[in-house]
Structures are given as structure tokens and as C-alpha cells.
Amino acid sequence: MQETNKIREIDVIGIIMKLLPKWMFIAKVMAVSGVIGAIVALNTSKEYTTDVILAPEMSSGGIGLSESLSDMAASFGIELGNKGQLDALYPEIYPSIFSSTDFILTLFDIPVKQEKDSISKSYKAHLLSDAKTPFWKYPIVLIHKLFKEKEQDSGKINPFKLSRTDEELCELIRGSIGCKIDKKTNIINLSVTDFDRHVSAIMADTLLHRLQNYITAYRTSKARHDLSYYEQLCNQAKKEYTESQHKYASFSDSHLNTKLQITNSKIEELENDVQLKYQAFAQTEQQVRAAKARVQERTPAFTIIQNATIPNKASSTPRSLIVLLYMFLGCMGACFWVIFGNHLKKTFKQYKMN
Question: By three-state DSSP, how is residue 81 classified?
Fold first, then answer.
């Protein structure tokens, strides 16, 4: 059997010869596309991204054999699943914490200040008033305002029933916050993107401290609860000891020269009660000290590898690249029209006649 391969060759020279007579048309299309690209670029806000890097403490104890095996398996991309034995709040769930609505709502009232401003405002007010709307979105915004139901702003946010504005702001913040975890080293990379570089750095620094406080509060919640309970017992024991001591002193002073046996028995009884109350107070005081030590022991240590720094370079697409991209698309479109324009016209006329 003989196989026949039909090879369709592209006549590059023919295409170039076809485009050369139309160079003026292509140049005009590229110029118009460049102008459109410049308008789009000037109406597109620059975005700045601030990164912070930290490494949290995974456990308070030493590294055992199971942890070593887990680290070795992680280097080959295998998860043994024993991290939950170390701590229920392991780094893999941090992105879920940052994307939760409850956490995002706590960011609304953070005071921020733009580079050009001298007065601080809330992060929510910054997003609502300082964001630049491109001109091509004006019709959409106008239609949205016309058909949007009026919302009663009481000043309080109800997480159970969010307004449409608050819900849209949550989605906007959720898209501007990044949290990446290196599974091998457990290094956390937090990033915040904003159209103002100062606000970006402020929010990144805030997220860093919010995460530290969140993890610390979680890791020490049981120990702090125990500490509060023992402090209550200690205060109560101290109060009872003070009252017992006052009763003993008052009774002893009022019966100082009395040699009756019943009086001596009462004094001895009060003295024993004072000693018992003191022993109870001393015991609860030791428990308070032990509870404070457990809180300190459970408090995780953080190593901040990179603090928040105001970025000087925008992370968004450069405006010059946007202009060049539009000019390239315009050039491609003009060349396509020069090569296939006549054929498309003939096809359209035939289709219209039929």
C-alpha cells in the first residue's frame, strides 16, 4: 500500500508581497490600536503587592521518629497524615482561615492611610471611595445603581445577613489576599495586593500580626481557660484566708487577758482555721503559677523571615506592555484582514444572495 501525504505549504513570500502594498493601512490600524491601548492603560489602576514571610512553631516538644518520617515523606511529596497529632491548627488550613468571611469582616475597620493622604480611614471606606473605576465600566455601574435596591446602613455588620455591598467587598478582599504554604518547610507566605502601595504594606503587616494572634489564641485557649479558673479559686481562697485571719485577730485582741478554757479553745479553733485557709490559698497560688507556666509553654514562637515593606514596583501589568499588546493585536487583525478580507467579503455576499 502506498500512502500519500498531502503537505500544505505556506507561501511566506507570497504573504509578505501581499502585505507590503497595504503597509499604510496596517500602520494606521496599529496607531489606532496603540491609542486605544494607551487609554486603557491610563484608566487601569496600578496594583502593588506586599509579601511577608514567617515560620511558625509546629509543636512545643522535640521531634520524634514519626515526625522525622513525615518530613522525609514530605520531601518526596508524600503525606503521612500525622500532623494533626501535633496540633489541630496546622499550617495547611491557614488559607481557609484567611478566606473565611468571619476573618475578612474583621479587616473592615482597620485604619489605613494612602500615600497622598494625611488622614486615616477604615479599610472598607478606602475600598469604597478610593478605588478607580475604568471608563468602560461606567455603563455597568450606572445600570447597577439604577436597579440596585436601597440598603439601610445601620453602621453594624451582621455576619449572618450581609448586605450586597459588604458581600462584594468580602469577595474583593478575598481576591486580594494570598496565603501560600510550603509543605516541606511549613514557611508561610502572606501577600496583599492594593492599588495604593502604603495600604498594601499596612494590610500585610496587619495580616501578619492577626495570624500570630489567631494562632496564639488557639494554642493557648485551654491553658488560659485553666488559668482563669485557678485565679478565681485563688482569689476566693485569699478572701476566705483574709476573713479568717481578721476573725482570729479580732477575737484574740478582745480576749487578751482572759484565761478561760473555752476562750483558749476558741482561739485555737480560729488559729487552726487560719492555717487551713492559708494552706488552701497557698495551694491555689501554686496552681496559678503552674497555669501561667503552661500558658507560656503553649504560646507558639514565630520566626519572621521577611517583614512588610512598602513596594516600589507595581505588580500589575506595565502600561507600556498593555500598549504594545494592543498594537500587536491591531497588527495581527490588520494582516488577517488584508490576507482574508476579500475572501470573507465574497463568502458573505454569496451567503446573503442565497
Answer: coil
